[in-house]
Design a protein that fits this description.
Strand content: 5-15%
Helix content: 25-40%
Strand order of the largest sheet: 2-1-6-3-4-5
Largest sheet: 6 strands, mixed
Number of helices: 26
Radius of gyration: 22 Å
Structural class: alpha+beta
Mean pLDDT: 96
Amino acid sequence: MKNVYCGQLLEVDLATGTTKDIKIPEEDFLNYLGGSGLAAKILYKELDPSIDPLAPENPLIFMAGLLTGTMIPTASKTVVCARAPLTGIWNEATVGGEWGTHLKGTGYDGIILRNKSEKPVYIWISDNGVEIRDASAVWGKDSFETEEILKKETDPKAMVAAIGVSGEKLVRFASVMFQGKYARTSGRGGVGANMGSKNLKAIVLYGTQKPGLFDRNGLIEQIKKDNATIKEFTAGLTNLGTAGGLEAIEGWGDMPIKNWSGGTWTEGAAKTSGKLNIPKYSVSKHTCHACPIKCSKIIKIDTGDGREIYGHAPEYETVAAFGSNCLCDSYEVIAKANDRCNDYGLDTISAGAAVAFAMECYEKGIITKENCDGLELTWGSEEAILTLLDLIAQRKGIGDMLAEGTRRAAEKLGTEALKCVVDAKGMELACHDPRAFTSMAINYATANRGGCHLETLSFMYERGMPFAELGYTDEERDPTGNEGKAKICRDFQDYQSIYNSVGLCKYLSVGRVGPQTISTWINLATGWSLSKEDLMKIGERTFNLKRMYNAKLGMTKRDDTLAERMLKEPTASGKHAGVVPDLEKMLEEYYQLRNWSYNGNPEPGKLQQLDLGWTI
C-alpha cells in the first residue's frame, strides 16, 4: 500500500452477487479524511428521503478511518454508516479491534453494500479476492457461534463482523458484533438491522497489506513521546476499564438512576463498579490495534446456571444501563446481560433503556403482568432483565414492541408511557445526565445521530479535565449553568467529529491529545501540511454535512429537543438536584455560533465557507 489509504472502495450488489472497485479521488481524503466523513459525502449524494431505512435500496457503508491500521496510537476504528432504523436519520456506529486493520489489508478503505440477497449470505474478502458465500449454516445463530464457524470456513486468523438473531429479526437497535467473545461492537442506531435487512450475516476479512508512511522514523519518534503522556493520563482506564470510575460518576450526578428519575445510588455504584469487580473477575487484558491504553478487560464468571461468562467485561455505559438505570446492584447480573446482548447483537444502551422503560411502565400500571405473560417487571429483577432481553432479541411477546425502541413502544402504550421515554431524536440517551453537565443537553439536542454522548464528550471538560489544544484549561466551570455552554458544545462537536474520520479512539482525549497532536500525526503519515485549524475545519465540515443529511430528511429546530423528563423534571437529590437545562437559551446561542438559520439549518454562506456549496 503506497499511502495510509488504499484509494478504493469495494461495492457489493447483494441482489445480483456482483462486485466492483471504485476509485476514491485524493481530494476526498483531503476534504473528509475517511471514516464517517467520507461516508457522509457518499450517503448524502445518494439519499432518497422516500426510502425506508430497512428497504433494500438503502445503502450500508463500512468505512475505515484515514489512519486505521497504522502504528499511530489507537488507529483501529471502522465506522458503519447508514440511515438508522431506530431514528430514521443519520447514523454512524464505530468499532475498534482489528477488523479495520484487515479491511485496509485487503486493499480497500471501505465497503458499500447495496440491495438485498435472495438468501442469507456472508462476504469473504482476502488477498485472493472477494467471494459472496452461502450463510444458511449460520443464519439463526448468534454472534459468538457465527464467528467460530466462519473462521473455520475461511481462515483461523480472519476477523469477523456478524449479526446475531436480533439483526436477523430487524430489532431497531441491533448491533454489528466484531471478533466474537472479545465483543467489539458497532452499537448504536440499528446497523445490525440494516445488515439483516439485506440478508447479510457477516463480513469476514483477512488482509496482509500494510499502510505506507511518509516519514516512518519521524512518526516513530513522535509516537514514543506522545505515548508517554497518553499512558500517564489514562492509567485508570488501563487498570480498571471504563467502569472503574463509576463511584465518581455517580457522585457527580451523572449516572441514570431508575429510568432517569432518581438522584443518588451510592451503595449500588460501589457494588457494581469496575474498581471492585475488575480485580475480582478479570483474567486478561484485550486491546485494539496500536492502542497504548488497553482499557478492555476479559472476565470469567461462573454464573451457576450452566452458562459460564468468558468474554468482554461490561463497559461503563452497560453497567449504568442495566445497573443504576434498572436499580440492579448485582455485577454478576449486569455481566450476564452484557454477555447476552453481545451474543444476540443488541446495543446495551438502548436495550438497558428499554428494560428500564418497561419497569417504570409496569410500576405505573401502564404495562401489567397480563401484557407480558405473567413476568413481573420489578426494579432490579434478574429474571425481568434477562427474560426481556430474550424476548426483545427474538421479537416475542412484549419484546416485539420493545424491539421497536422506547419511543415507538410508548406511542403504542399511550400518553402516560411517553412520559417515561428518555431520548433525543428517537435514540435513547447515553448514560450521562444533561442535568448534571448542561453542555450535554445542547449536545444531545443537536447531535446528528440523536442521544449520543460521543459527539462531544464535553462532560469530561465540565468534570475538570483540561483541553489545552482547544483553548480550555483550568478556568472556573459551572457544570449546571447555561452560560457559555453553546460554545463548549460547538467546539467539542467539531473536535470529536475528527476522530470518526481519522479512525482514532476518543479516549485519546483523556490522554490529553488534541487537534494539534492529531494533525502532526497525519502530516508525518501522509506528507500533508495540515494545521490544527485545517483539521478543526474538516471536523466542522463533516458535522455540518451530517446536519445537511438530516435537513434533507426534513429535520429542523423542532427536532432539536430532549425528552420531557430532562427539561421539566429535576431530581430531588444528588449534585444536580433541582436543575433542568435552559435548552431554548442555549439553542439560540448555538445556532448563532454555527451560522445556522433560526430553524436550525446551515446558512448558504456557511456551507460555501466549508466547501459544502454542492449541498445547497
